[in-house]
Design a protein that fits this description.
Shape: elongated
Number of strands: 5
Helix content: 40-55%
Structural class: alpha+beta
Radius of gyration: 23 Å
CATH architecture of the largest domain: 2-Layer Sandwich
CATH superfamily of the largest domain: GAF domain
Largest sheet: 5 strands, antiparallel
Distance between the termini: 75 Å
CATH topology of the largest domain: Beta-Lactamase
Order of helices and strands: HHEEHEHEEHHH
Length: 230
C-alpha cells in the first residue's frame, strides 16, 4: 500500500503566500512562488498552474514543476480539468485509475495519473485558473491534504489577482505617460476609455496629430479633440 502524502501544516504553508500578498511582485514571480510552495509543501511529483488568458478567455499553462527523475507528462488530464471547472470545487483522487468519477478516461491512462489534487483559483465570483499537483507513483494525498491545498489555493488566487491588477495599473500608467507627451489630459482620458491603440509616432517620426490625415489610428485622436477640445 502506498504511503500517505503529508502537506506542511497551515502555520508553515500560509505565511509563504501571505508574504507574496503583502508584496508587489511581478505576476510571473507570484505564479512561480505559488507553484514552488505547492510543489514543495505537498511533496508532489508534478505541479501545474493554469490561468485564463484575460483576452482570449482560454486556460493557458503558466508554470509547471516536474521533480527530477520523475516519469510522464506535465500536462493535466482534460477530464480532471473539466470536472473541476464544472463543479467549481477542489477535487481529490487516491487513485485516478480506479476513480468512478473519472471513468478511466484516455487522458488518465495516457498520463499515468494516480493520486492528485486540483483546486479552482477563485477571485470574487470568478474562477481565474486552477492549481494542480499529482503523484503518478508512491504517496497518496488525503482529504486533510485537500483541505489545506484548497485553503492555500484561495490565498494564492488573491495574490494572483492582486498581481494582475498591479500589472494592468502599471501598463495604463505607462501608456498615459506616453500619450500625455502629445495630447491634453482630456483627450488622453477619452483615448484610454475607448480602448483604442493609438500609435504615438508616424512612420516619418512626426506626432499623430501631424499625420492625422494619413493614418487611420490618429483619426480617432482628431475626432476626440473635435468633440471635447484640448
Amino acid at each position: 500500500m502506498a504511503a500517505a502524502a503529508h502537506i506542511r501544516p497551515p502555520d508553515a504553508l500560509v505565511p509563504d503566500i501571505s508574504r507574496t500578498l503583502v508584496g508587489t511582485q511581478p505576476i510571473d514571480e507570484v505564479l512561480g512562488h505559488v507553484v514552488d510552495s505547492a510543489f514543495e509543501s505537498t511533496q508532489a511529483t508534478r505541479a501545474l498552474l493554469m490561468l485564463y488568458d484575460e483576452e482570449a478567455g482560454v486556460l493557458v499553462p503558466r508554470v509547471v514543476r516536474h521533480r527530477e527523475g520523475a516519469r510522464g507528462s506535465t500536462r493535466i488530464s482534460r477530464t480532471i480539468l473539466d470536472q473541476v471547472l464544472k463543479d467549481r470545487v477542489s477535487m481529490l483522487a487516491l487513485n485516478a485509475q480506479l476513480d468512478p468519477r473519472l471513468d478511466m478516461s484516455q487522458s488518465i491512462r495516457t498520463l499515468d495519473i494516480r493520486s492528485f489534487m486540483c483546486a479552482p483559483l477563485w477571485h470574487e465570483q470568478e474562477v481565474i485558473g486552477v492549481l494542480y499537483v499529482d503523484n503518478p507513483q508512491g504517496a497518496k494525498f488525503t482529504p486533510e491534504d485537500l483541505d489545506l491545498f484548497t485553503a492555500f489555493s484561495n490565498y494564492a488566487a488573491v495574490a494572483i489577482a492582486q498581481a494582475r491588477l498591479a500589472a494592468r495599473v502599471l501598463e495604463e500608467t505607462k501608456r498615459r505617460e506616453r500619450l500625455q507627451r502629445y495630447h491634453s489630459p482630456a483627450v488622453v482620458d477619452r483615448i484610454l476609455k475607448s480602448g483604442a491603440d493609438v500609435n504615438l509616432k508616424a512612420n516619418n517620426g512626426t506626432t499623430p496629430l501631424a499625420a492625422a490625415h494619413s493614418r487611420a489610428d490618429t483619426s480617432l485622436v482628431a475626432l476626440l479633440e473635435a468633440a471635447g477640445g484640448k
